[in-house]
Write a structure and sequence with these properties.
With about 140 residues, the protein is mainly beta. The chain is built from three helices and seven strands; from the N terminus they run H-H-E-E-H-E-E-E-E-E. It has a single domain, classed as OB fold (Dihydrolipoamide Acetyltransferase, E2P) (Beta Barrel), CATH 2.40.50.
Length: about 140
């Protein structure tokens, strides 16, 4: 009983993909883009996380050829199954920004960062983590 209490006491908050993936997605025509886009509708429980530190486990999708990156996409699923290549939805990826560069890895990582929700910019993902750090390589 004491061990369970201690593990809960020192546990990092992890709202995770399960809550974020509950976002509703509508398709609508965007005048600026000139085509139909997927637009998120965030629930109150997701909106309550905006500006909060969230923790997501996933896989690094590099956006450049550099070995180290301070901006990358975190995917809930491995590269071959991710939103860009494997048919997963846009609710399974997040943009990650950091002041520190991270070495690319194909292993699952844990990223902690301040959540920003995007329902305005069609050229950006739904979820953005700012001031991020990798807490588990």
């Amino acid at each position: 009983m004491v061990l369970i209490y201690l593990s809960l006491l020192f546990q990092t908050p992890n709202y995770g993909w399960d809550l974020l993936s509950s976002v509703e997605i509508n398709k609508e025509y965007d005048e600026f883009v000139g085509s139909e886009i997927e637009k998120p509708i965030f629930s109150a429980s997701i909106r309550a996380l905006e500006g909060q530190i969230v923790v997501l486990d996933g896989f690094m999708i590099p956006l450049g050829n550099e070995v180290s990156q301070d901006y990358f996409v975190l995917s809930r699923f491995p590269y071959q199954s991710c939103f860009f290549c494997g048919g997963a939805g846009p609710e399974t990826v997040a943009e990650v920004f950091s002041d520190v560069e991270f070495a690319f890895t194909e292993k699952r990582i844990r990223v902690e960062g301040e959540l920003e929700l995007n329902d305005q910019n069609p050229y950006q993902l739904f979820f953005v983590l700012k001031n991020s750090k990798i807490t588990r390589p």
